[in-house]
Design a protein that fits this description.
There is one protein chain. The protein has 11 helices and 18 strands. It is an alpha/beta fold. The chain has a 6-stranded mixed sheet with strand order 10-11-9-12-13-14, sandwiched between helices. A hairpin with a 2-residue loop joins strand 17 and strand 18. It is elongated. The chain starts with a strand and ends with a strand.
């Protein structure tokens, strides 16, 4: 069975604890603190591997954990940072928080590598706590805890065009004629048990077409294998709706088109609203030319702006006209790929709302404001500010927690400086 879904548990590494120790050397009877810092925990990273096309690997193993950071040591020795764990997935994989179904990341387009869970920051050793009044600190800071999450992986095929229709209407035959794909073809319902991708090469450019396995009424409610396949047309920009115009199996092609469109609309109205063309297949099997079923299909759907193309996937009749019509629609519509925006930020789960913070004007530097406290420190420990998404989360955190509002109440002006635990920012509205 084609593996396009998997539920897995992921865990980042715990930060190593800071160490408590003191210098013990000959002729240095009262050596100062020399406890080293703990190492950072490893991150959980998802990365696109172009050699993969299913999520099969995640069907057999369900738990993945990055390495914990090592504890700091004596003589200011820094603990070793934990090793990241990199999870390879096929392009088009959407990572969702399992319970809510909200999107954490879409591994497609330019997003080929994403840190989903940050490792805990290592704790600092007792050497950092020595002061003029506390020369023998007997405590160190523990490392930050690991993050853990259950995620749902869903592979949503990346294709320009989706080929849909009831089982046994000739979709696999069409794909084999117009692309380099070699799907299995036989006269059985649900012959196709996985989406087949092929590239259509035309003189003025090509496009990727996906043969979506046969849909049936009730697919949007999970009847048959409907939900397993409907997700694969979520990224397509144009839909080719294929029907058996000759009613070889006694089906009504007009009723079939209405039924499939109803399923598309029930699953996702945005998909149903995308440009659509109808491929009226098996015209070579029409036995009554006086009562042309293609004209009946045209009268029903062309007034709605859905063009109808009579074809024979077996003989190749009408395929060139159909492919060029689809290419024209692609060329004249928005070519922006369908990317699922991030809705769930794992960092939110690990920054406790009740931790305090302070916002105050610096007494030592003009036009400078200090933001400190456990809440800020924890947020910075879990946020990768070097990434675009991490910095976007950081900005949202400042707004949602009221820190920006507190800075304005404290009198901050554009161009003033904000300091947070060694990080420096210029303030702009």
């Amino acid at each position: 069975m084609f593996a396009d879904r998997a539920k897995i548990y992921i865990r980042s590494g715990k930060g190593g604890d800071g160490h408590v120790s003191f210098r013990r050397e000959l002729y240095v009877p009262n050596g100062g603190p020399d406890g080293g810092d703990g190492g950072d925990g490893g991150d959980v990273i998802f990365e696109v591997d172009e050699g993969l096309n299913t999520l099969t690997d995640y069907r057999h193993k369900r738990k993945y954990a990055a390495q914990d950071g090592q504890e700091g040591g004596k003589r200011n020795c820094h603990g070793k940072s934990g090793q990241d764990i990199i999870l390879k997935v096929p392009e088009g994989t959407v990572i969702k928080e399992a319970e809510s179904g909200r999107v954490i990341g879409d591994m497609s387009g330019e997003n080929l590598r994403q840190i989903v869970l940050k490792g805990g920051k290592g704790g600092i050793g007792n050497q950092h706590f020595a002061t003029s009044t506390m020369q023998v600190p007997k405590y160190a800071k523990p490392g930050q805890p690991a993050q853990e999450l259950e995620v749902q992986l869903e592979l949503k095929t990346i294709a320009d065009v989706g080929l849909v229709g009831f089982p046994n209407v000739g979709k696999s035959t069409l794909l084999s004629r117009v692309t380099n794909a070699q799907p299995k073809i036989a006269n059985y319902h649900f012959t196709t048990l996985s989406p087949n991708l092929g590239v259509v090469d035309l003189e003025d450019g090509g496009f990727v077409i996906a043969d979506i396995p046969g849909l049936i009424e009730g697919a949007s409610n999970g009847v048959g294998l409907g939900l397993d396949f409907l997700r694969h047309i979520e990224r397509t920009r144009v839909i080719i709706h294929m029907v058996d115009a000759a009613s070889v199996e006694g089906r009504d092609p007009v009723a079939d088109i209405h039924a499939i469109n109803k399923e598309l609309h029930a699953y996702n109205p945005k998909i149903a609203a995308r440009p659509q063309v109808i491929a009226a297949n098996k015209i070579d099997a029409i036995w009554d030319p006086e009562n042309d079923p293609v004209e009946k299909i045209r009268r029903e759907f062309e007034p709605e702006g859905i063009p109808v193309y009579p074809i024979s996937a077996v003989s190749g009749q009408g395929l060139k006209e159909l492919m060029y019509a689809v290419k024209h629609i692609l060329d004249t519509t928005d070519d922006k790929p369908v990317i699922f925006e991030q809705e769930f930020f794992p960092e939110d789960m690990f920054i406790q709302e009740n931790l305090p913070y302070t916002v105050e004007k610096s007494a030592e530097e003009d036009h400078t404001y200090l933001v400190e406290g456990p809440r800020i420190e924890k947020m910075l420990g879990y946020t990768n500010l070097d990434s675009e998404k991490g910095f976007a989360f950081f900005q949202r955190f400042l707004k949602d927690t009221g820190i920006l509002e507190d800075l304005e109440k404290a009198g901050i002006q554009e161009g003033d400086t904000v300091r947070m635990y060694g990080l420096t920012f210029d303030y702009f509205r």
